[in-house]
Design brief:
The chain is of the alpha/beta class and about 300 residues long. The chain is built from twelve helices and six strands.
């Protein structure tokens, strides 16, 4: 049986230096970087997403950055497909795939044997059936699924029926078959920091974003027809400024809200990463670097 493809992951909360470490390791280990971020995929959302600069992107090959227009949607399923294709291509060329940063669920969906189901428009909608009739139909196809689907949740009933008909087995059976094991030989490095120091760095980074022209970046996006309701503008660093452009808050109030929301997000990230991914955590960036090098040699 062939050895599993090796994948290095640099994870952790925002503002912990993942980009810098990822570039350094890509240079040292003959790697290419795959962005695991759900906002950096959008063209024109550069400052608020803390996207790697042009200069940084010239230091190492980056993938899944600037591949979407701001009006488009992006899903965990699409990331899974794109990232896995990039991993295969990078490994085929004898290089090391390095996933850097980003959304925890996206990273886990890529690395583990998670299966997502299409909700295709051509799927039958069963408009002539009542909720009770849909419930009975699903009971015949996948009774176990009804443990988590209410009789009045018509959308989920229809979706579960279509999946069962399309795959020949129910969604519950398909999920039971998934072992939730990694499909690659993975090394996950988590970057940590003292909380007070991290919060101070977050504050300074937001101030720097403002100096770099974050308001002008958002104004330019709005001039292009992008709305704050679009998925691309739902990230921290963008959505908070809706109140300013609607004359409801001052710039200063919005900036403080960005800082506050980022701090809260960091707490959630810490909890998620520590509970969901088998990362080895480091405060010392040099130690993280040496750990990755030893893993690659092992």
């Amino acid at each position: 049986m062939p050895a599993a493809t090796r994948v290095l992951v640099i994870a952790g909360p925002t503002a912990t230096g993942k980009t810098e470490l990822g570039i350094r390791l890509a240079q040292e280990l003959n790697g290419e970087i795959i962005s695991g971020d759900s906002i950096q995929v959008y063209r024109g959302l550069d400052i608020g997403s803390a996207k790697a600069s042009r200069e940084e992107q010239m230091l190492a090959v980056h993938h899944l950055i600037d591949i979407k227009d701001p009006k488009e949607n992006y899903s965990v399923k699409e990331f899974q497909e794109l990232a896995r294709a990039k991993i295969a291509d990078i490994a085929k060329r004898g290089k090391l795939p390095i996933i850097v940063g980003g959304t925890g669920l996206y990273i886990k969906a890529c690395l583990y044997d998670y299966h997502f189901f299409d909700e295709e428009e051509e799927d039958e909608q069963f408009e002539d059936l009542s909720n009770e009739e849909l419930y009975e139909k699903l009971k015949e196809l996948d009774e176990k699924a009804l443990e988590k689907i209410h009789i009045n949740n018509r959308k989920r009933l229809v979706r579960a029926i279509n999946i069962a008909r399309k795959h020949g087995k129910g969604i519950s059976a398909i999920k039971d078959e998934q072992k939730h094991q990694p499909i690659y030989d993975i090394c996950i490095i988590g970057l940590d920091d003292e909380r007070d120091e991290l919060y101070e760095r977050i504050s300074k980074r937001v101030d720097r974003m403002m100096e770099q022209g974050l308001l002008d970046e958002i104004r330019n996006l709005l001039d292009q027809g992008v709305l704050f309701s679009d998925q691309s503008m739902q990230g921290i660093g963008y959505k908070e400024f809706a109140a300013y452009f609607q004359n409801e808050k001052t710039v200063e109030e919005c900036v403080e809200e960005v800082k506050r929301n980022t701090r809260h997000f960091v707490k959630r990230q810490y909890t998620w990463f520590r509970n969901q991914l088998p990362a080895v955590w480091f405060i010392d960036r040099s130690a993280a670097y040496e750990y990755a090098r030893k893993w690659m040699k092992g």
